[in-house]
Task: inverse folding
């Protein structure tokens, strides 16, 4: 039995299915990540095809069948297509990386309203803001990592559980997270955190006010979290968009 559902969604990926149809992967607000077929979407007469560009924010109507991997979308209304985002190669790179994270690391149909709203907000900021896109993506990656269940502690060592009393000499272990300087010496898989990098990482994670932002430190945080996610998700091979766009 099918249920007709209307949902706000973000277009993550689309693939040709036949001469006239598309398979589209959406991240929806109330049904999580879904895959759907849109019949006739590739036809020149289709009113839907132009609305489902990757990264668009849309409202979809679909027939949901429990136990089915592929749903049927019958209607799409465009909410926002983020034109300024799509005119900037750096912004496209980071927005595409977000789509990769959602595609590769979220289970099908797992609902997370906070993550959905955060994703749309990030796309809106990339589209409208003059704020550094590298900083915006780093903040999103920290947020995403927490929302899928990997919250990092900057107060206690993830290895020995002792209080981290000094911001210098600490490290990041890809299996555990932040480790104190005592454990750094006895742990192999570690990224050494300078005091400045540790403070920036902590400020971004706890939403404290930032004074100085070093782009290399932001790149290091992205590198660290990407390796951390790869370690905990063996099927995840990293973010291709960061490397090739």
Result:
């Amino acid at each position: 039995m099918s249920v007709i559902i209307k949902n706000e969604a973000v277009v993550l990926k689309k693939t040709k299915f036949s001469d006239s149809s598309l398979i589209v992967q959406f991240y929806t607000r109330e049904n999580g990540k879904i895959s759907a077929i849109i019949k006739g979407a590739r036809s020149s007469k289709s009113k839907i095809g132009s609305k489902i560009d990757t990264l668009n924010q849309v409202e979809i109507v679909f027939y949901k069948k429990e136990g089915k991997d592929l749903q049927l979308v019958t209607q799409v209304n465009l909410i926002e297509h983020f034109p300024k985002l799509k005119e900037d190669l750096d912004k496209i790179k980071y927005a595409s990386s977000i789509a990769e994270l959602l595609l590769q690391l979220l289970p099908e149909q797992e609902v997370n309203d906070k993550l959905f709203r955060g994703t749309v907000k990030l796309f809106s900021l990339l589209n409208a803001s003059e704020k550094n896109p590298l900083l915006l993506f780093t903040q999103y990656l920290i947020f995403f990592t927490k929302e899928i269940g990997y919250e990092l502690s900057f107060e206690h060592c993830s290895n020995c559980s002792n209080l981290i009393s000094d911001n210098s000499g600490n490290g990041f272990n890809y299996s555990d997270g932040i480790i104190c300087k005592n454990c750094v010496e006895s742990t192999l898989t570690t990224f050494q955190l300078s005091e400045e990098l540790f403070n920036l990482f902590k400020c971004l994670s706890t939403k404290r006010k930032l004074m100085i932002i070093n782009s290399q430190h932001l790149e290091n945080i992205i590198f660290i979290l990407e390796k951390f996610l790869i370690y905990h998700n063996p099927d995840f091979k990293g973010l291709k968009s960061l490397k090739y766009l």
Observations:
- The longest strand covers residues 2-16.
